[in-house]
Design goal:
With about 600 residues, the protein is mainly α. The chain is built from 31 helices and six strands. The structure holds one DNA strand of 10 nucleotides.
DNA sequence: TTAGGGTTAG
């Protein structure tokens, strides 16, 4: 082709390099390299990646590395080629020094080969070449990816022994690794004891808090960082938005958003994606969509966050429209996007669409259905009352039914009052997750709705005997930048008297609108009258009452709850939204409920 | 010569 005088473009070069590599024709490969330079394609990343492989295979490690370093986005193939080259070279070095060991360990770590990186460390240590901060921080990063908390502790001890207590790289590495291993207390201890004022260490610690659900701690640390005069960058903000998301702190998210705009970090894709997620989780899907539209180059994560947000808000059809818009833009969905798409169908009751997506996802999008997709599909079928179809899928799927699947079946059994399926699913769940009290409660609900009071009594006894405590329901409501917490029957709030007075004031119009307390499914071992009182003072009702007295008339009220919203509160809040002419948004553990004018966006289907 | 922090679901 070349000798015929036909010009080669950037699409042809990678194939030519690949052919040279496969046939070991390095002389020709180098000639082609010359042509690349002449034709001006030496900056094309596909061309460069294929050259890295060529030079690595012919053992010219220096050239391979030089080209590799210049590529902005490296492919797995070029990583592997260069790494193999280093490993081979490394193996023939008789006396390996510290730098050689570090280079190979970090090569494995960068390449996602964390087990190899971590296992090389003891060999290196045994050689007596010593360790430096590079070794430890590289190994800690792999430990973090592996979530190996036991090894993390050993590396911590070694770091202290080696005198790296105040080294920023090591402090950051330990905070990150402990955090990823789920040991947030250890992360926090290392961070505090180091007394560091390093931006990366602060970012890691803020991230640990936000991923551990300690949103308030994350925000507090961010304030402390600012008071120390440490200038934030875009990394901090993606974690901070997550902290706001986990707190459902809408006002906080808005304030942080303003700062991000001022600092010019809004073009950062991670911060942008977190902002979309944050607004969605804080109850404002409109703000989320505005933020989404402002992202200059939307990634699959941006689309997934937006589609998932719409799904959780019950806007199933809009979520599917968004999905189609994404496909039109040529963005390929991943397994998470498809979970959100199925979830959208689920919340909107779109069974036919769900079946279509589920059965064609592998063919259309090359994504094999995973456990999550099966669990979602079983949930959809179950909710829609297609219990036989749901069971058939359970029996034919290539996975063992897990807690998500049994949970879906238990939920379906509750909605459709199927006592047999309910008790079977509950039994499986109690085996899989004995510590969770929700299972007992759902089963009790099934018995109660079937009028099987002896069953309810039996569960009450089992819970009492096995000391299973109902997880206390808690609700949160944010006013300005303060988050107010409520627990059932709680009178400790400074405006407690007014809150209870408001509920008292609402009781008559509620009764007139048809509200009857649903005392029968309550498992507390108390008198009926006492039960009605407890029910009427559930945390979400207290939070809504507080919202009514603490926000201006007509303002929306946003509440977050740690469990599923209870049926009684759902009914009551629907009526309150009409009586008080307010939009009330409740985020529960599963989804959002937008109450307006006596109705809920979930269509009583949750 | 070798090295550190962030995003989407269930």
């Amino acid at each position: 082709m070349h000798s015929l005088g036909v010009k080669c473009n950037e699409f042809a070069f990678p194939s030519v390099f690949k052919a040279c590599t496969l046939t070991n024709d390095f002389r020709l490969g180098k000639q082609v390299h010359g042509t690349v330079v002449v034709t001006g394609f030496e900056n094309d990343e596909f061309v460069l990646n294929s050259m890295v492989v060529l030079y690595a295979k012919c053992g010219e490690i220096a050239d391979s590395t030089r080209i590799f370093d210049a590529i902005p986005r490296r492919t797995v193939v070029s990583w592997n080629a260069l790494l193999n080259c280093y490993v081979q070279l490394f193996n023939v070095i008789p006396e390996k020094d510290l730098i050689a060991w570090n280079a190979v360990i970090s090569g494995h770590s960068h390449n996602g080969e964390d087990v190899e990186a971590v296992s090389l460390f003891p060999l290196m240590y045994g050689e007596g070449v010593g360790v430096n901060q590079t070794t430890l921080s590289t190994v800690l990063k792999s430990i973090a990816s592996l979530q190996a908390s036991h090894i993390c502790r050993q590396m911590h001890a070694l770091s202290l022994k080696s005198g790296f207590e105040y080294n920023n790289y090591i402090v950051n590495g330990l905070v990150d690794a402990y955090g990823k291993c789920g040991q947030s207390e250890d992360a926090s201890r290392v961070f505090k004891e180091s007394q560091t004022s390093d931006l990366l260490a602060f970012t890691s610690m803020i991230t640990v808090y936000s991923q551990d659900g300690q949103g308030e701690e994350a925000l507090k640390l961010y304030l402390e960082m600012q008071s120390q005069g440490i200038k934030p960058d875009a990394f901090v903000y993606s974690s901070l938005f997550n902290a706001c998301a986990s707190l459902s702190a809408y006002e906080q998210a808005k304030q942080v958003h303003v700062q991000v705009l001022k600092l010019g970090f809004i073009i950062d894709i991670f911060a942008g994606n977190s902002l979309v997620n944050s607004y969605a989780k804080c109850g404002s899907i409109d703000d989320a969509e505005r933020a989404f539209r402002e992202i200059p180059e939307r990634s699959i994560v941006s689309w997934s966050a937006m589609i998932g947000g719409m799904a959780q808000h019950g806007h199933g059809r809009l979520a599917l429209q968004m999905f189609n818009e994404m496909l039109k833009e040529g963005v390929a969905p991943n397994h998470i996007t498809l979970v959100s798409v199925l979830c959208a169908c689920n919340h909107a009751g779109l069974v036919t669409d769900a079946k279509r997506y589920f059965s064609s996802m592998e063919e259309l999008f090359s994504v094999q259905p995973m456990e999550e997709h099966y669990a979602c599909m079983i949930d959809i079928l179950g909710r829609a009352g297609k219990l036989d179809e749901a069971m058939e899928l359970v029996n034919t799927m290539p996975y063992e039914a897990n807690a998500a699947v049994w949970g879906a079946l238990l939920g379906a059994a509750r909605i459709h009052k199927n006592v047999d399926l309910g008790s079977k699913a509950a039994e499986m769940l109690i085996n899989l997750e004995p510590e969770k009290s929700g299972t007992h409660i759902l089963l009790a609900n099934i018995y109660a709705s079937a009028g099987m009071w002896d069953g309810v009594a039996k569960i009450r006894k089992v819970m009492k005997d096995s000391n299973v405590k109902k997880e206390p329901g808690m609700s949160w409501m944010e006013i300005k930048d303060k988050v107010h917490t409520f627990i059932v029957g709680d009178r400790s709030h400074p405006r407690g008297k007014e809150i209870y007075a408001k509920l008292e004031e609402l009781s008559e119009p509620l009764r007139k609108a048809g509200y009857v307390p649903m005392v029968e499914t309550d498992l507390h071992d108390v008198e009926e009258r006492e039960k009605a009182k407890l029910l009427y003072h559930h945390s979400e009702k207290l939070a809504v009452a507080f919202g009514l007295i603490a926000t201006p008339p007509g303002a929306p009220i946003r509440v977050k709850k740690n469990l599923r919203i209870c049926l009684d509160c759902h009914t009551a809040i629907k009526l309150v939204s009409k009586i008080a002419s307010r939009e009330i948004i409740v985020r529960d553990i599963n989804r959002f409920h937008h109450f307006r004018d006596g109705l809920c966006s979930c269509g009583d289907y949750w």
